[in-house]
Amino acid sequence: MELVPATGGVFEVSMNGEKLYSKDETGVFPSSEEIIAKLEA
Question: Matching SUPFAM superfamilies, A to Z (predicted)?
Answer without folding.
Answer: Thioredoxin-like (SSF52833)
